[in-house]
Predict the 3D structure of the following.
Amino acid sequence: MAKKGGRLRAIGFPFLGGVLGALALPPFNLFLLCFVSLVPLLLGLDGASGRAAFARGYLYGLGFGSVNIFWLAQFVTKWTHSPWLGSVPWLIVVALFALYFGLFAYASQKLIAVKAYWAIPLVWAGVEAFRSMIPYLYFPWALSASALVPLPPLLQPAWWFGPYMLSAWICWINVIAAMMMKAEAAKTTRRYVLVGVGVAVASILSFLAPPSGPTANVIAAQPGVDLAYLPKDEQMRRLSESVPDLLRVGEASHRDLIVLPEGIGTAYGEKAPVLPFEVSGSTPVLVGAQRHAEVGSYQSLYAWDGKTWQYADKVRLVIFGEYVPFRDSLGFVDSFNIPSGDLIAATEPKTLTIGKLRVGGLVCFEALFEEVARHHAADGANLLAVISMDDWYHGTGAIGNLEAAAVLRAVENRLPLVRSSPLGRSVVIDALGRIVAQTEPDQPAIARADVVLGQPSRVLPLIHEIARWVALLALVASILFRFTSRNADSP
């Protein structure tokens, strides 16, 4: 990785690499770019100081975030009716998000100097795990593994070791490309190529050996009603008209589960939810409602098993949507029409038993968190269900990223997944990450399919947890190595 290149290489190339990384993800889905987007940054780290390495990584993050997170400006503008207010959170989030990429570059620069290329993908995975885990400020948005959602045959490493290690493999291919451009020794590069190709071949072979076992007939019901911006009474009126028709679909045939979106009903304490339509009969139904208790309010998933209702409360809330960190110190947030009170998060996920199904419910934003779905898998879930209310982001790039996260959750846990959205798309995803049924957006519709149920496993979630901590330890070790090497080089 040559040391010359001037200002364009130091500034323009890393920023361009970030833009390429964003274009690899939804809504653009130019997925092959994920295998080269890091190359300009990696080439720019050779011979750089720690400060310069961080700056170049930060520029990569600015390029990535300015494109991938532009949906935030669109959403807030629609929410506040002000383009100026819409641009403020977008610029702030991009500026903060870019710090993670600066951290990656800072930690990787010394590894490049000593030719420890094998460790760089682990550092990349460690940074993604780190930003996904930070308490209160967690942001597992747009993991690089999401780029491969259009290519299910290459998603299967997420099943073996979790999503961060799939991201590590993507970074590994970038490292190979950078090594080739640097003209590293052919013998060394060949070893990296063999590993990279070996993972791809193994993934394809895993994809060609689909799971077998009991099946279930599942339905993702899409009401076609805007639950974000319509007045509440209008929402309830339209739901009362569209949902009963969806619930009646296929009454003459067997249906194991119908999944409806988040935010449709209201519940109080331990009582059944109040809905704008009647749920009865023997067909199990999942639906979202806000549950009010003595201690506060929760976003919850309610399940009708044909006889009684049960519920599970949401454990991962939407920052600045369902809670505001440091609310007392941020008086300016009132300008953005943010809710005045914070919801409460449950302490841990609750897996529900509904007939022959063991359902791990994910409430909208929770589908971004691999550890929530993994908890359900360890608790014996044989099906995942996502009830969403992403109408807030309708018409923006956020929807595709949320759907991609749902695909990853299915593959990681080798479990089928049903995702219902008010305006769509609503989808059914099999355990290999294939979308086997989907709706057209903006209208009442269903996505229906028979899916092979997953097999409960406690070993697989444990492996994923270990892999996550291996990635985090690699990040910490690389930073410590950088500090110790700097001290050793000091006079």
